[in-house]
Amino acid sequence: MESRVEKAKELFKSGYNCSQSVFMAYADLFDMDNATAAKISAGLGGGVGRMREVCGAVTGMTLLAGLKYGATEGDDTESKQKTYEVVRALSEEFKKTNPSIICKELLGLAQAEKSAKPEERTQEYYQKRPCVEIVGDAAKAVEKILFSE
Questions:
Q1: For residue 127, is pLDDT > 90?
Q2: What is the mean pLDDT of residues 87-111?
Q3: What's the gap between Cα 20 and its chain centre?
Q4: pLDDT recorded at residue 149
Q5: 10 Å Cβ neighbour count for 75?
Q6: Distance between start and end Cα atoms, the chain
Q7: Contacting residues for 145 by C-beta, under 8 A, at least 6 apart
Q8: With contact defined as beta carbons under 8 Å apart, do 84 and 40 qualify?
Q9: Cα 119 to Cα 10, 15, 123, distances in angstroms
Q10: Distance (Å, rounded) from C-alpha 21 to C-alpha 129?
Q11: Distance between CA atoms of 63 and 54, rounded to whole angstroms?
């Protein structure tokens, strides 16, 4: 598989949130169209609904792990365990280049956002936010853990 790290970063730069950018870069490998992938991952940006909790790039990785290994039956504990193991491996790989999987910690924020309104994507936004690189780190983890076989 050809690397899609730059594709994920470009998706972010074009206005998609962090979760969408990671998820959409690979969703077609699971026969999912961009519109569906964008909708599924839309609420997870900004640390889940811009609450600055688990980083959206990490939730995008998690969604991809679910597509690859997720249980489709409620009593399938083997698939559940495999998915959880892969999510943990993805998170550990991500943390090799990032100090946390928590959005507000990655952004150096003392507290969660009060507003759900996304910031305007300006040149200043991209200069103060490390999100493009974080999205790239998540995509690298996805390729190493999910698609290196």
A1: no
A2: 96
A3: 7
A4: 66
A5: 7
A6: 10
A7: 86, 89, 90, 93
A8: no
A9: 18, 11, 12
A10: 15
A11: 13
